[in-house]
Amino acid sequence: MRPIFARVIRSNFEPCTKLFRMYGKSRPNSKEAALHIPVMAEELVSGLNIKRGDVIIDMTFGAGGHTKFIMENYKHCKVIALDRDEKAFEIAQDLSKKFKGRIIPLLGKFSELDKLLSENGIVENSLNAALLDAGCSSMQFDQPERGFSLVRDGPLDMRMDGNRSEGQITAADVVNNLDEEELTEIIYKYGDERNARNISSSIIENRPISTTLELARVVSMAFSQTSDVFRVDSLGRRCHIATKTFMAIRIFVNDELNEICHGIKTSEKYLMNGGKMGVITFHSLEDRVVKRMLKQIEISKPFNVKMGVGKRSKTERRYWKREQSLLLPSGEEIEQNPRSRSAKLRIATRCRDG
Questions:
Q1: Quick check: 133 and 280 in contact, CB under 8 A?
Q2: How many Å apart are CA 88 and CA 159, to the nearest integer?
Q3: What does the angle CA 189 – CA 191 – CA 196 come to, to the nearest 5 degrees?
Q4: Among 34, 61, 152, 197, who pairs with 81 as Cys (CB 3.0-4.6 Å)?
Q5: CB 349 within 8 A of CB 320
Q6: Which stretches of 118-242 are assigned E, i.e. beta strand?
Q7: Mind listing the pLDDT tens digit for each residue in 16-55?
């Protein structure tokens, strides 16, 4: 057993403030990656306005769906393929052998990207386009040993980095060590779960919890008014009643919202004037962060319906120009790839005006 480690919760999106202690544990190896169907690939690539000789950064390589689409349709472009998941990095390395000299695989998070680009000789204001497909990849959901799935049993892990980052907390650490108030705040703020208080109480009463199906069962116990473990979401889909809780814990474990901020800020630094960025999000919290970043609104500011409305002062610099309205997947794509149903695509252009 590795030594006990402590973590102070202090970032903008982490609601808890208390110091808590947890144990690090080893994790099983991942299985081979499942086939990944890239979401809104045509709309994304069209919005990026890719041309011959462009250099694009795919900040969420995953199983390589978007990068492979670019490689096959734009023969003279290069892609910098970033992912925080070691398995995804291995796939990027394999794909780079097929498309020799056209793919540069990088292993790291958005918050590590600036350093990685610099180390690889990529200078500021030099990239033509950037794409970011937020959230958890299909590959990670499809591997029960990663701990993201609530329908297939696996250890309570949920770390997108796997074992890469020494001392990173796991879902088991969160579930089994935080108090009721902290769990309630995480589940409510990151999962938009109205039943957060009852869920956190159920978790406290049934600890320790070590597997995904065990957590799903404990969460369902908080919904005593129904025997059905499925409910209808805002898009009319039937989803498991533990879905929002799993999402909230995953976002917290991986610091996903702060990472999105880092990703957009780094794109702002490395895209050339007129360079395009496309961001795909899958739930309202992600999309809200993206909108605020593109409007240059402080993330910590309370929401106001008039945010971003009005003229800029003469001294205020603008970094992004949003190109078009929100794009959604077609009915045909949703039928072929149901996971795309909640996707939202936003395209923006990097500006250098003052």
A1: yes
A2: 13
A3: 75
A4: 61
A5: yes
A6: 127-133, 230-232, 238-240
A7: 333 233 323 333 333 333 346 899 999 999 999 999 999 9
